[in-house]
Design goal:
The chain is α/β, with parallel strands linked by helices. It has one domain (25-182): Response regulator (Rossmann fold). 42% of the residues lie in helices and 23% in strands. It has an 8-stranded mixed β-sheet, with helices on both faces. α4 links the parallel β4 (108-111) and β5. It starts with a helix and ends with a strand.
């Protein structure tokens, strides 16, 4: 009987830690974002000033716990684009927030779920460099991320209107026709 009690306690603690520390990612949403985010980068009016050597560079940032999710997004992007985005080369890297440098040459960032402090670190860097920050969850707009995609019965691209000014990014007019603006 004591062994069953220990198993139940262990199972309970495992489930509790999973709920507390892990974030559940929707595989369909991850795939949709991996398909849509790179296309949005190409709608930046000043894209040519943000790339190096004709290469669009995307940096996916995650916590250490979500490194495998970041790798999955990277693989989805590679499967879809095969290192080419229009007439430009495409590079996708993953990193955690401890490795984020102020000297990054990324054209744009994808941020997975993380703390408010990590959000602020990235969004201040990105806004200073006029770089796009995509977030997994549009609820992260309160942390000043710029764009997110959400899948319901349809796919929605959300733009954080209050952050747009901070980033100093101008998109081609087509973008404003397909995006849903969140105030």
């Amino acid at each position: 009987m004591k062994i069953y009690k220990n198993i139940l306690i262990s199972l309970f603690l495992y489930l509790l830690s999973s709920i507390t520390f892990a974030y559940d990612y929707d595989p369909l949403l991850l795939r949709a974002q991996a398909t849509i985010f790179p296309k949005i980068i190409m709608l930046d009016e000043n894209i040519n000033q943000k790339i190096q050597g004709n290469t669009v560079s995307i940096l996916i940032l995650s916590s250490a716990e979500d490194k495998n999710i970041a790798e999955r997004v990277k693989n989805h992007i590679f499967e879809k684009y095969k290192n080419k985005l229009g007439n430009k080369m495409l590079s996708v890297e993953t990193s955690n927030f401890n490795e984020l440098s102020n000297n990054t040459t990324a054209t744009a960032f994808i941020i997975l779920k993380t703390s408010k402090g990590n959000h602020n670190k990235l969004t201040s860097l990105a806004s200073r460099e006029n770089r796009i920050v995509f977030s997994y969850d549009y609820k992260d707009f309160k942390n000043n991320t710029l764009i997110s995609v959400h899948v319901r019965e349809k796919t929605y691209v959300y733009l954080n209107k209050s952050a747009l000014h901070d980033y100093g990014i101008k998109f081609l007019p087509l973008f404003y026709k397909i995006v849903k603006v969140i105030e």
